[in-house]
Each structure stands twice: as C-alpha cells, then as structure tokens.
Amino acid sequence: MRIAITATGAGRVAIGDPDGPERHEVDREHLPALVARLEAEHAPRWVWRDTREWAPLLLAHGVRVARCHDLRLCGAILAWSTAVATARDEAPARPEWLPPGPAEAPVDEPVAPVASVAAHAALFELDAPSEIRSGDGSRPPSLADLDAEHDRQLALADAADSPGAMRLLLAAESAGALVAAELRTAGLPWDRGEHERVLEAALGPRPAPGRKPDRMEELARAVREALDAPSLNVDSHADLLRALRAAGIGVGSTARWELREHDHPAIEPLLAYKRLARLWSANGWAWLDEWIVDRRLRAEYVAGGTATGRWATSGGGALQLPKVVRGAVTADEGWSLVVADASQLEPRVLAALARDPAMAAAGRGRDLYRAIVDAGVVESRDEAKVALLGAMYGATSGDSGRLVPRLGRAYPRAMALVDDAARTGEAGRRVTTLLGRSSPLPPTSWHETQARANGVDATAADERRARSAARDWGRFTRNFVVQGTAAEWALCWMASLRPRLAAMSLPPGAPPASASGPAFERMPHLVYFLHDELIVHAPEGLTGAVADAVRESAAEAGRLLFGEAPVEFPLDLDIVRSYAAVS
DNA sequence: GAATGTTGCGCC
DNA sequence: AAAGGGCGCAACATTC
User: Is residue A110 scored above 50 in pLDDT?
Assistant: First the structure.
C-alpha cells in the first residue's frame, strides 16, 4: 500500500491512498498523529515530493515511518540513468513541479535563481532545512500528480536493464533520505567541554573577539623573524609566497607538502601555524557557538548530494570533522556509541563488481592489502594500498603509477573494468554504477575543447589541452563506478540497519532516555554517517544487539548488491563512550 | 561593497 | 615522498 502526502496551501495537508479509503485533509499540526495512525495500521510506502518537506515535522513529534519514495531523488536518478534510456525516450517527461536532484546542476552552468524562495519558505516548518526549493515556485502537486509521477517512476524502473537493481536503488536512495533527516533531528552527541579542552591545549585560551589565539600569534612572530619580514601577513598566500622566496626558499606555492621539502628555520613554525589556523577557523570556538546546541551537532546532510551518490553536507562540516576534535563526540549518560566502518570498502567493491576471481580471493579475508602481498603481487602492504588506490583513481606517475601495471597483470578483470570506465569517460560518454546511477556528461566547455582539437586549424596546444581534459574526465568516470557502487553498498547497509534498530527499545527501568528528541530517546538510533562509517547511539544494555544488527546489515548489503559473490565486507567495530577511543 | 575565483586543507 | 577520485569550508584576492 502507498499513501501520498502534499500541501494544499493555507497550512492544510492532503493525504491519500489512490486505491483505498484513506483520504484526508487536515491542518498541518494534525498531520503527525494521522501519519502515526496510518503507519501503525497499514505500514504504507509514503510517497512525497521531497522527504525534507515532511520528515522534520514528523520527527519533531516523535513519528517515524518505515518506508518512503522520494520523488525528487528518484526522479533525478531516473532522469540520467543509462539503464532506463530507451524507456525514458517514450515516457512522459519529469513534471515541472518536481525539482532537480541535489547533484544535477551541470558543472559549468549555474542553476537559475529560484523566483520566490522567501515566499515559499513560509510554507515549510521552521526547522526544515533552509534551502528547500519548490522547483520553479509553481503550484504544489496534487495527490493525483504524486500518484501519476510515482507510477511513471515505477514504470521506468520496471523497464530498466536490471529492474530489480533499479528498484533497489530507488528504495535505498529513499531510505537514505529518511536517514539524513533522522541524523539531523537526533544530532551527534557532542561534549562542548571536551572540545574546549582540545582547543585550549592546542591554541591557548579563547582570544577576545577580533584577536587571534596566543599560540598562533607566537608562531606568526617566529615566522616573520625567521623570514626577516616584519610586516608579513602569514594568512595571505601571496604575501607569504613572496616572503618565502625572498628568504631563498624556492617554493611554487605555500602548500604544506611543498614546504615540508625545505630545510629552513621558518618552515617548522609556519607548518605549526597553518595547522593551528585550520583548527581555529574550521572547528574553533566560533564553530562551537554556531553548531553545538543542546549537546548536539545538528548538521544538514544532503542525501544524493554528489554525482557519485555519496552524501554531501551543507553547513556544520560534519563530513570533515578532524580527528583531533572527535574526542568531543561522547554518548549520553547510560548510553554508548557503536562505531563501525567497512574496511577497504572500495577495493572490495571493485573485486565484486568485476567478478575478478583472483582479487575476490584476496578480498575473502580481513586484510585485502595483505592478501595482495601474500599473493606475491607487490612487496609490502603499503605498496598494495598505493597501487590499488592508484588503479581506482587513475594514477599515472609516482610510486603509485609505477605499481599499477603489476596489479593489472595479477587482476586483469578488475583492471579492465576501471580502464573501460576511463575510456568511456574520455570519449565523453556516461558510465553507470551496479544499481544504475549514471555519471553526468562533461560540461559544454569540455566538448568545445575536444571539438577545437579535432578542427582543421587545431594547434599542438589545442590537442594537448584536449587530451589532458579527456584524461581528467576519464579519471572521474574511472573512479565513479567504484565510488558510486560503494555508496550504494553503504546506502543498503543503512537501509537494512534502520528497521532493525527501530525494532529495539529501551527496557523498562533501564538507563535514562537519550537527549536525541522524542523520536529517538528510547531506542538505539543512527547519529553519524561518513561514506563507509556509521555511529549508532545505543543504550548500554543493547550495545551487543546493536553490534550484531550492524554486522548483519553489512552482510545483507553485500547480498543485496552482489548476491552470493565471494567477497566479504568485514567491519571494524568498536563499542565506546567517546569517538576518540576508536583507532 | 558584494559577488566570484583561487588556494589550501580537513574528511573518505 | 608524491598525486590519482569525491567533497565543504574559510580566508584572501580579484572583479564588477
């Protein structure tokens, strides 16, 4: 059974099952209770334009749904997938009320500004993410519109090259949208005091507004002295580069890896300064004030936010939390963190994707890199890692590029898969993940560069530029198939874990409720996701059951994508009070 | 003075 | 030690 939800204006909401008796129109404030009742009675798949329009409101009232279909995210996948190309030519177009997906904007063609964002924003709940758009600002869809679009999308999925794979992708993407909303509502438990201790140990006491921390000022003075440049602004790349060269340090930029090459008394304080400056500006006191509210980091996750299907964030920088501040991630009293990451996910995905028997054999144990050494392909684990990353990223030089050919001889099918993806991209064509997410086409400027090189009056420089641009795009598509399929594995992992956690609950008389809000205070819940890693906030008495569920979900994700293919996806899993306690 | 581009660095 | 993929963000520099 499915039930669609849409706004009808003036704070009213229509809700309806196209084939059944459940048709209602209610005030917004009565929606959570109604959804809760229908969820309990029918466990429907909820069909809506955009999960971000509805999930925050429901979660704020403690209401969770098990399944949904996010028409915006699924529509974006179907609009690009090569797996439905033929059917799409014959199907109706995406309706105008359905906005594009988060990763659909072409690289060099900025999206046109939305007509009336402010006017539309008022329709949404206050706690909804700020940048929700209604597409072109036209009328919201009717229930019939939603049902028709849902039917259109399901028909496209049924007509896909692998209908089961596409249906799985749409379900996983929609589940991801629910998880993203839930992560934001629950928040990542954050100990402000612990974070402040880290800052003070590194930077000294919090400076007055407009001042830099003492430790940074000291280091800046040392740099100016060592470079004999008393008026140098250390924060200015241009200024700094001039001063470095004047002091006889032959660098082409002020990047850390280049500075490290030189032996000069200015280098050490400069590198220390840059490290502290980064901590201060990215995760300093100002960040704490802005982002840590009520013991929680509530970052905005953008499901499907990147071309490959990996998520992005908007605000809070939750996907770039530096290791030094992770000690501030601390479970509530009576609760624990179950931290799990899929080790060596991408090479394992490559092995399974390519059905490369030799590489799959290496991926059967816990350490794929070690197995490559044991198979005699390279001499050290470090070399195995660098070679594999080089193969997936398209390295051509350095140690990595040198080792790749040896990998190719040992694992020809895996290498053929990524090489083929690279050639497809170099030709300006799209590649597609296992479940059916396709890469974008290169920007018009790319095509123009290629056309210029093929013209009658092409210069050697034109041809060089075109070859370089083609190889760049080839590296992108080479990586796309692996990174994108790994993202699908991770989505399936979470989609499988979510209902398992929802089925658990805090035993009576057990620890206090968590501070994660009414939807999560009495059950284990996801609080963090980072590409191939997740954190569950769990009552202490349930950590064992949660760990089992996390492992079973990882195994389930492997089966969903690859059937019984002989590649394992082992987890590194820890049960801790603080994130710092993990490797 | 606001918008846009570049650089550098944090994460996977 | 260096350089291959995907990102977001802050700061500075440049342009309008």
Answer: no
Count Cβ neighbours within 10 Å for each residue of A233-258 and write b for 16 or more, e otherwise.
ebeeeeebeebbeeeebebeebeeee
Q: What is the pLDDT of residues A126-180, one digit of tens each?
A: 333 333 444 444 568 999 999 999 999 999 999 999 999 999 999 999 999 999 9
For A199, half-sphere exposure in the C-beta direction (CA atoms, 13 angstrom radius) is 24
Model pLDDT for residues A276-317, shown as the tens digit of each residue: 999 999 999 999 998 999 999 998 899 999 999 999 988 888
Which pLDDT tens digit goes with each residue over A22-47?
899 999 999 999 999 999 999 999 99
- Cβ partners under 8 Å of residue A211, min gap 6: none
Residues ≥6 apart with Cβ < 8 Å to A458? A452
A107 CA, B5 C1': separation in Å?
15
Closest CA to C2 C1' — which residue? A398
Closest C1' nucleotide to A341's CA: B12
Tell me the CA–C1' distance in angstroms for A510 and C7.
41
Our measurement of CA A230 to C1' C11, in angstroms, reads: 21
The answer, yes or no, to whether residue A113 has pLDDT greater than 90, is no
Strand extents, DSSP E, A235-330: 292-293, 296-297, 301-302, 312-313
pLDDT per residue as tens digits for the range A541-570: 999 999 999 999 999 999 999 998 778 899
pLDDT at A131: 37
Kindly list the structural domains of chain A, giving each domain's residue range(s) and its CATH number in brackets, ordered by start. Answer: 2-186 (3.30.420), 193-288 (no CATH), 299-322+329-343+487-581 (3.30.70.370), 346-485 (1.10.150)
Separation in Å: C5 C1' and A21 CA: 50
Higher pLDDT, A45 or A116: A45
Q: Which residue has the higher pLDDT, A535 or A566?
A: A535
What separation, in Å, do the N-terminal and C-terminal C-alpha atoms of chain A show? 45
Give A92 CA → C11 C1' in Å.
Answer: 47
Burial environment of residue A223 by CB neighbours within 10 A (0 to 12, 13 to 18, 19 or more): buried
Q: Which of A301, A318, A345 is nearest to A73 (CA)?
A: A301
Report the SS3 class of residue A370: helix
Q: Which residue is nearest to nucleotide C7 (CA to C1')?
A: A312
Q: Where are the alpha helices (DSSP H) in A427-459?
A: 444-454
Provide long-range contacts, Cβ within 8 A and 24+ apart, for A129-138. A129/A52, A129/A56, A129/A184, A129/A300, A129/A314, A131/A314, A132/A50, A132/A52, A132/A53, A133/A99, A134/A97, A134/A99, A135/A96, A135/A97, A135/A98, A135/A99, A135/A100, A136/A96, A138/A96, A138/A97
**Predicted pLDDT of residue A416:** 94
Nucleotide with smallest C1' distance to residue A317 CA: C8
Report yes or no: A77 and A436 within 8 Å, Cβ to Cβ. Answer: yes
Please state, in angstroms and rounded to a whole number, the distance separating the CA atoms of residues A232 and A235. 9
